[in-house]
Design brief:
By secondary structure, this protein is of the alpha+beta class. It has two helices and six strands; from the N terminus they run E-E-E-E-E-E-H-H. This is DUF2093 domain-containing protein.
Length: 77
C-alpha cells in the first residue's frame, strides 16, 4: 500500500463517506474555505457531496451557511 504522504506537494483526493482515496499522492490538501494547508494525517472534515476538504468544523459550518443562508434561521427555531 502506498503511503498517503509519499510526495511533499498537494494531494488530490476523492472524498468518501468515512475515508478518502488518494488520486494523486501528496502531503496535504487545501481547505476549501480558508485555503489553509491541511496535512493528510490531520484531515478530519470534508464534504462527499461537494468533494472538498475543510480545516476544521468551523470551516465546514461556514461553507454550509454560505451555501444555504436559510440554515441559520431554521436551526434557531
Amino acid at each position: 500500500m502506498m503511503n498517503r504522504m509519499d510526495s511533499g506537494g498537494e494531494a488530490k483526493l476523492r472524498y468518501l463517506d468515512a475515508d478518502f482515496e488518494v488520486v494523486r499522492p501528496g502531503a496535504f490538501v487545501r481547505c476549501a474555505v480558508t485555503g489553509e494547508a491541511i496535512p493528510l494525517d490531520l484531515l478530519k472534515y470534508w464534504s462527499v457531496e461537494r468533494q472538498e476538504p475543510y480545516a476544521d468544523a468551523a470551516a465546514s459550518l461556514a461553507r454550509e451557511l454560505e451555501l444555504d443562508p436559510g440554515l441559520r434561521k431554521r436551526s434557531t427555531r
